[in-house]
Amino acid sequence: MPREIITVQAGQCGNSIGSQFWQQLCQEHGISQDGNLEEFATEGGDRKDVFFYQSDDTRYIPRAILIDLEPRVLNGIQTGPYKNIYNPENFFVGKNGSGAANNWGDGYQTGESVHEEIMEMLDREADGSDSLEGFMMLHSIAGGTGSGLGSFLLERLNDRFPKKIIQTYSVFPDTTNSGDVVVHPYNSLLSMRRLTQNADSVVVLDNGALSRIAADRLHVQEPSFQQTNQLVSTVMSASTTTLRYPGYMHNDLVSIVASLIPTPRCHFLMTAYTPFTGNNVEQAKTVRKTTVLDVMRRLLQPKNRMVSTIPGKKSCYISILNVIQGDVDPTDVHKSLLRIRERRLATFIPWGPASIQVALTKKSPYIPMNHRVSGLMLANHTSIATLFKRIVRQYDGMRKRNAFMEGYKKTAPFADNLNEFDEAREVVTDLIAEYEAAEDADYLSPDAGNTAPAGEATKQTHNLTTHINMPEQQSKADIIAERQANLPLPEDPPVASDWNSADATKVNVGSGRDVTSQTSTGNAQQSGLEGAATGGSSVREAGGVDMSNIGREGVEKKN
């Protein structure tokens, strides 16, 4: 049974990215511009129902809600080449069409007056799902609608669907240059509070990094919005491949969250993708040859990350999941992981498993590719705190002078006082401190001051202590913790029949195969969490090579 995901697109940026994303999914699944299955789309083996449902006339309709307070982008979608695939009842445009004037407060207070209509759309989509797993929000945190109305919707989604996973693809402003929205530090800080408190997973996409990568790949001084949107849609498509072409592991959203986010508060993820070619981005460079090692090595290079961070001496990976697409021999993956370990290309946290998880998945048979292998990295890295620090620093500079504050005071959230700003800043600074604390070996020690906030309890999973909310009934955190604590093993290992006596590395294969090969990295029967907590080496859920033997003092290489 498919685990359906409903996509919520908020604001101009969210809808522009979403439009590109749905075009790509239609092409990958052989769905025409009017929603019908193409005659050549006979391969099967994919799960279209995760993101689409079939109407009475058998057309495929995206499980998507498109929201904006000004009509320009939505009008473009409704008159564009893919206008017929959407459900016309799932478009919401603000009544006066004036937008939110790049003001978080304006977007948030508008949510109070329009939320019933939007929630009715969401309820209708949820009721039409057989086994709804969660929601995926696409938005920017710099403007007014994506940040303000998006924040309001995050709160309401969490209240209405407390047991469903909420993942966001959040576009952050370019904090290294002055952008079009002069008040983006205000909007970003206020949005960050909701992303921290109301989302389970946040995929961070930085406009500055996107422009840099696009310029490097396309040889243009100023990439267009369409070109950067193509970068984002390619990443989104790759990150959902294991859901749409399922294998043994990582075939639902909760398993991805469980493998990447060991502690709930550190749930901001960065991405890298290679290679970008003419298949997914117009005017991209031609790639002469791709190998598994080359792809995995490039994914670890900071210049390929879609977030502009400044790694410090103690910066390290909390977790890594590489999604490798193409015709790949699992033994090549194993050799590549060993080479990465030998070269010390990645530094991991000292209190958890040091392993790169790998999921092999097939490419769409309906899109010709001019490269053999492509890869996406989803990573939880402590250096992302440097991005948050820049936002706080820019906010402090503007707040000190009360610059552009009058527009916010005219909105409902700030009518009486500016406490909303102060509370948001406190949440973000606590988040920064959490990521910095995660770099220390005593992060999980009670004596280190890493205690659960009020209203939370401590749950033990595989000897690894994490802080999760504990309501009367099972919560999302419980579900994720259970998945972490019960990492499955293959029923019939094809090589090592005695897991207690054989040291093995397990690689998840998109076709459902699990391949093991003899290594000296530890007993594969232990989960990564258990091995880390007991001091032994081990293999994480999808099974990359255990990196713990490379030395915690290894310095991440910069290219």
Automatic annotation (TrEMBL):
GO cellular component: gamma-tubulin complex; microtubule; spindle pole body
Ranges where the record places region Disordered: 488-559
Keywords: Cytoplasm, Cytoskeleton, GTP-binding, Microtubule, Nucleotide-binding
PROSITE patterns attached to this UniProt entry: TUBULIN
Domain Tubulin/FtsZ 2-layer sandwich: 249-393
One Pfam entry name: Tubulin_C
Subcellular location: Cytoplasm, Cytoskeleton, Microtubule organizing center, Spindle pole body
Feature: compositional bias, Polar residues: 514-528
Family: Belongs to the tubulin family.
Gene Ontology molecular functions: GTP binding
Main location: cytoplasm
InterPro entries for the chain: Gamma_tubulin, Tub_FtsZ_C, Tubulin, Tubulin/FtsZ-like_C, Tubulin/FtsZ_2-layer-sand-dom, Tubulin/FtsZ_GTPase_sf, Tubulin_C, Tubulin_CS
Highest taxon above the source species: Eukaryota
Residue ranges occupied by any Tubulin/FtsZ GTPase domain in the UniProt entry: 48-247
Protein name: Tubulin gamma chain
GO biological process: cytoplasmic microtubule organization; microtubule nucleation; mitotic cell cycle
